[in-house]
Design goal:
Function: Scaffold protein for the de novo synthesis of iron-sulfur (Fe-S) clusters within mitochondria, which is required for maturation of both mitochondrial and cytoplasmic [2Fe-2S] and [4Fe-4S] proteins.
Structural class: alpha+beta
Number of strands: 3
CATH architecture of one domain: Alpha-Beta Complex
CATH topology of one domain: Sufe protein. Chain: A
Family: Belongs to the NifU family.
Mean pLDDT: 80
Helix content: 55-70%
Order of helices and strands: HHHEEEHHHHH
Radius of gyration: 22 Å
Low-confidence stretches: 1-17, 169-180
GO molecular function, one term: 2 iron, 2 sulfur cluster binding
Strand order of the largest sheet: 1-2-3
Distance between the termini: 57 Å
Strand content: 5-15%
Shape: globular
InterPro entries: ISCU, NIF_FeS_clus_asmbl_NifU_N
Number of helices: 8
Pathway: Cofactor biosynthesis; iron-sulfur cluster biosynthesis
CATH class of one domain: Alpha Beta
Length: 180
Amino acid sequence: MFRSVLRANTNIAKTAFQKPATAPLLRQALQQTRAYHPKVIDHYQNPRNVGSLNKNLPNVGTGLVGAPACGDVMRLQIQVNDETGIIEDVKFKTFGCGSAIASSSYVTELVRGKTLEEAGKIKNSVIAKELSLPPVKLHCSMLAEDAIKSAIKDYTSKRRVTLGPEADAKVNLESSVSAH
């Protein structure tokens, strides 16, 4: 995509400079186009932690989020050390624009090595600021934040107490709530 835009701009420039009267118009048009920040391009061209984890493992949480307005879909998976509560591995797969892919890639670097609580506090503003996302692309950083929260929620839902007196108390509480 970046190459085709560059190629189109190069062709426009060649044509414009052959007709000197159009050169000022070309300069104005090129100044109005918004280029991606180098960090976005880096994460887009060299995404980190692309792939999948086994979603059936009890220490893996999967978050799947999407933005219907633009068609971006993001899946983020975290693998948590059960003893320490630290995110040891993280993978993503994203279908979307360059900013969505870059946001996913960056957030995988951000959450690795953090506790669930620390990862859950990551805000989209941190992601957007680091990648210098323009206002029209802020939804990509919001998706990344939602994906983190969704993966944490999935992980914690798998970790519910299933044995012992705590489980019995929880079952009794749930059944009394559902009875009302």
